[in-house]
Design a protein that fits this description.
Elements (H helix, E strand, L loop, with lengths): L1 H9 L5 H16 L5 H10 L2 H17 L3 H11 L9 H14 L2 H18 L2 H15 L4 H4 L8 H19 L16 H11 L8 H10 L24
Length: 243
């Protein structure tokens, strides 16, 4: 088996897929299908996305035939990250049929959730920019050469990029400028002058003198009381005095 493993690394990248098929077939004949798991995993790592999808489908089908439903579901979930639902309809249909046979309502719902997540991942900003450029091109009158007269020999995509940059510069110029910051100047008036100005601004304000309140509180304090000491009659103690 070491010879087949070295052969998968020695051949050209375009021939690796066929070499891995031969390697998997010989390993299954000699050691059994369970020995091919590591070979499938290695092939999925090194092959291109198109061939890796084929290996994932075969790997998941082998696991489902062995009764390893959870293993097969994990392989489908891993392979879904490289399968755009718009172009790889066969993969998603195969996974759906697998869940109908071996899964339940929850597993089908999870499969649909992953499908929506992968769909959102492929809708990248690059696709959005491309659609905007095509929209600008479709709304423009004339051909691409009309967008940049005198440059008919340039590539069409390059002209569209220049047009997009021009539109972005115009949009930036149209944006309102930020207002200047308000600067505050420190006043030279003293605190007494500011207090006088505040009193003039509000002539009805009641002036409360805190010092008068303090003096009044001191005047209202009660005078000290002189205590006189007197002797207690012996009849009060009774028999306790003799003891």
């Amino acid at each position: 088996m070491a010879v087949y493993e070295r052969a998968t690394q020695a051949v050209q990248p375009s021939e690796q897929y066929d070499m891995y098929n031969i390697y998997i077939k010989r390993a299954a004949e000699i050691y059994g299908v369970t020995h091919t798991r590591s070979i499938y995993e290695k092939a999925i790592e090194v092959l291109s996305d198109e061939h890796a999808r084929e290996m994932c489908l075969r790997f998941a089908d082998m696991e489902s035939k062995l009764g390893e439903i959870d293993r097969a579901r994990a392989i489908y979930s891993y392979c879904s990250q490289m399968c755009d639902p718009r172009t790889t309809v066969n993969f998603w249909q195969t996974w759906k049929e697998f869940e109908i046979r071996h899964g339940n309502e929850d597993t089908i719902r999870e499969m649909l959730r992953i499908k929506r997540s992968v769909q959102a991942t492929y809708n990248t900003q690059v696709n959005f920019m491309a659609s905007q450029m095509l929209k600008v091109y479709s709304n423009a009158t004339g051909t691409v050469s009309d967008l940049a007269p005198g440059q008919s020999g340039m590539d069409d995509m390059k002209l569209l990029e220049q047009r997009a940059e021009q539109l972005a510069a115009e949009a930036e110029q149209d944006q309102p400028r930020a207002k200047e910051k308000i600067l505050f100047v420190r006043s030279d008036a003293s605190r007494s002058e500011l207090a006088e100005l505040s009193r003039q601004a509000n002539p009805d304000e009641i002036d409360i003198d805190m010092d008068d309140d303090g003096n009044e509180s001191e005047d209202n304090e009660p005078d000290e009381v002189q205590l006189e000491q007197q002797s207690v009659p012996s009849a009060v103690f009774g028999g306790l005095k003799d003891d």
